[in-house]
C-alpha cells in the first residue's frame, strides 16, 4: 500500500498590513490591549484579491517546490470559510482553472473552519493510500476580512487574510503518520457566521443585523479550545507511543497566544519546539497551520524528515491533530 507524504509547503499573504495602531483609529482598543490578550501585532488584508487568488498563488509555489507541473496534480481540495461564492463554483474549482487544469482534475471545498488543514491532510492521506490519487494539492485559503465586522472589537482584532498550500504524494518514506479529526456541533453557535445560508437567507434584515459577519463568544471558546486541543494532542501522542520529546516542532493553530501558551505548557513543549506566527498574521483560520509550517520551513528550521505535530480547533466545533515527517527538500536545496 502506498504511503502519503507531504512533499512541499508554501504560503502567500497579501501586501497590505493592518496594524494594531491602525485598529486604534477604527474601534475602541489599543495596541497594548490587543497584544496582551492575543499576542497579535498585525495582520495582512487583501484589497483587490479574492480567496481563490490567494490560494492560487500559494498553490503555484507549492507545486513548484514539489518539482511537479500543474498537470501532475489529480486532486485539489480547498479548506475555507470565506469562499469566493456562497454556493458555487467551489474555490477549488476556480483555483484549478487558474492553474490551467480545466478537465480531468477532482476539485472541491471543505468547511471545517480553523481545523480545515488537518481535515485536508486526512482526506489527502486517504486518497493517496487507497491508490485513488497520486498527487493531491491541499490549500487553506481565507479572506476573512470579507466576513469581519470592523466595528466589533471582539473579532476584528483577531483575523487576517492569507493562504497556505501543500502537495501530498505517494512516497516510501517520510509519511503522514497519523491524523485524527472530530467535531461537536452542539456548541456551534459559540463561533458562527449566522447569515446568508438557508437558516438566515440574505436580505435587508439579515445584512442590517450583521449576520453575514463572524460572531464569537470569546471566553467560552477559549475554555473549550484549551481543553480540547490538549486532549487531542495527548490522545494522538499516546496512540502513536510518542512523547513531546519525540516531536521536532509543535505547530498549533495560530488563534491566540494565550491558548497556545496554555496548551504548550500542559504538554511540556519547549519554546524551541513551538512555532509561532500569530503575532504577524493573526488568525487566518484554515490557512493558519500551513502558513506557520511554511515560515518555519523558509527560515531553515523544518528540514526533510522533521517530525511535526499539528493541532487545531475551530468553529463547528471541529478539532484535530496530525503527526507527520516532512517529506520535501530542505529550503536551501530548492532550485
Report what the structure shows.
The protein is α/β, with parallel strands linked by helices. It has two domains: 3-173, Thiolase/Chalcone synthase (Peroxisomal Thiolase, Chain A, domain 1), CATH 3.40.47; 178-330, Peroxisomal Thiolase, Chain A, domain 1 (3-Layer(aba) Sandwich), CATH 3.40.47. It has helices at residues 20-24, 31-38, 51-65, 91-98, 116-129, 153-156, 204-208, 218-239, 257-267, 278-281, 288-298, and strands at 3-12, 17-19, 42-44, 75-79, 106-110, 135-143, 161-171, 176-183, 191-192, 215-216, 249-252, 307-314, 318-325. Strands 1-7-6-4-5 form a five-stranded mixed beta sheet, with helices on both faces. Strands 8-13-12-11 form a four-stranded mixed beta sheet, sandwiched between helices. Strands 2-3 form a two-stranded antiparallel ribbon. The longest helix has 22 residues, at 218-239.
What does the secondary structure layout of this molecule look like, with pairings?
Elements: E1 3-12, E2 17-19, H1 20-24, H2 31-38, E3 42-44, H3 51-65, E4 75-79, H4 91-98, E5 106-110, H5 116-129, E6 135-143, H6 153-156, E7 161-171, E8 176-183, E9 191-192, H7 204-208, E10 215-216, H8 218-239, E11 249-252, H9 257-267, H10 278-281, H11 288-298, E12 307-314, E13 318-325
Parallel strand pairs: 4-5, 4-6, 11-12
Antiparallel strand pairs: 1-7, 2-3, 6-7, 8-13, 9-10, 12-13
Helix pairs in contact: 3-4, 8-9
